[in-house]
Structure formats: structure tokens, C-alpha cells
Design goal:
With 185 residues, the protein is α/β, with parallel strands linked by helices. The protein is built from six helices and five strands. It has two domains: 5-125, Bordetella uptake gene, domain 1 (D-Maltodextrin-Binding Protein, domain 2); 144-184, no CATH class.
């Protein structure tokens, strides 16, 4: 019997991942796994980077495992809705989540999630994202120093980030490191 829910976070080698799904998380008597379709719970809205990656991986996993892989979106609450939905599903090896680690940590730390990291098995954690700071070419800022000076003026600059994302946390930490009020950005 499964005792944990599983998360898939990034993937590079489908054969390795499919093999893990097929034998690595199952009890010894379940050698014929999978025998029915598998669901990947996407805790984000359709169309984002994480959703696109899950939908790209689903047909490859289906081919490796010989069963359909259904990706369903359960957005809301900074991914808390989707993670809570996954947690409510049977721990039977047929429900997984494809998620980004910063959201999971944010849910547990900031939103009093009804689960902890220990409640889940992590299949593959390797998705890497870089944070880039850029401005429109017609703006007067030519360096990070120029931006820091502008950040000293409340409301002069704004940032486009997803709440709870690593970029959001990074922007807040930048403001803290500069000893500037977070409300300035």
C-alpha cells in the first residue's frame, strides 16, 4: 500500500522516470503496474511553463508505461489548491503532481498547508530556473545601480512576478538586502 503522494518536479530522462514509476514506488506484488490511466495534477493554470512541461512529458511517459497520462489543472491559492487535491487522492501510485518546489515550500511555510514535505515522495527534482532582471529598452536604466537608485523612490518601479515564486522571494530579499522598504517596489 502506498503511504505517500508523489511529486514530479522536472525531468530529463523519461526512461529512468518511467522505470521509477513502474517499480520504484510500488510494493513487490504490483509488478503489472500500471493497469489503468495515471493522473498528473497540475497545481497551476493552463499555459504556464510548468503546465507546458507536464503536458510535454505526459505522452512520453504514456508511451513508456503503456497507459494514458492525464494532466488535470487544479490552480488556486499559490498552488495550495492543487497540492491539497493531490493529497486527498488515494496513495495508489496513479496520482502524481508536477510542481515547482518554491511553491510547495511557500505553501507549507506561509499558508499552513495541511501537509508537510515528509508526506510526499519526490521522484525527480531538477527543474532549474534563472531569474533575470530586465527593463524596457526605452527606460533610462543602464545598470543594476540605476535600478537600485530608482528603488529608493517609493512606487517608481514595479516588478512582474508570480506571488510565492522564487522571483517574488528574490525581489523581497533584494529589497531587504538593500535595506529598502518592500513597499517601494
Amino acid at each position: 500500500m502506498f503511504t505517500r503522494r508523489c511529486f514530479i518536479a522536472g525531468a530529463a530522462n523519461m526512461a529512468v522516470m518511467a522505470a521509477f514509476l513502474a517499480v520504484g514506488t510500488l510494493p513487490a506484488h504490483a509488478q503489472d503496474y500500471p493497469t489503468k490511466p495515471i493522473t498528473i495534477v497540475m497545481p497551476n493554470n493552463p499555459g504556464g511553463a510548468t503546465d507546458r512541461m507536464a503536458r510535454l512529458l505526459a505522452p512520453m511517459l504514456a508511451q513508456e508505461l503503456g497507459q494514458p497520462i492525464n494532466v488535470i489543472n487544479k490552480p488556486g491559492g499559490g498552488t495550495l489548491t492543487g497540492h491539497a487535491y493531490l493529497f486527498a487522492q488515494p496513495a495508489d501510485g496513479y496520482h502524481f503532481s508536477y510542481t515547482a518546489l518554491p511553491y510547495m515550500v511557500s505553501n507549507i511555510v506561509n499558508q499552513n498547508a495541511p501537509f508537510t514535505m515528509a508526506d510526499f515522495s519526490w521522484i525527480n527534482v531538477q527543474q532549474i530556473a534563472s531569474t533575470v532582471v530586465f527593463v524596457h529598452k526605452d527606460r533610462p536604466y543602464q545598470s543594476m545601480g540605476d535600478l537600485v537608485e530608482a528603488l529608493k523612490v517609493p512606487g517608481k518601479l514595479s516588478a512582474a512576478v508570480i506571488g510565492g515564486s522564487s522571483e517574488h522571494v528574490g525581489a523581497l530579499l533584494l529589497m531587504d538586502a538593500l535595506k529598502l522598504p518592500r513597499a517601494n517596489l
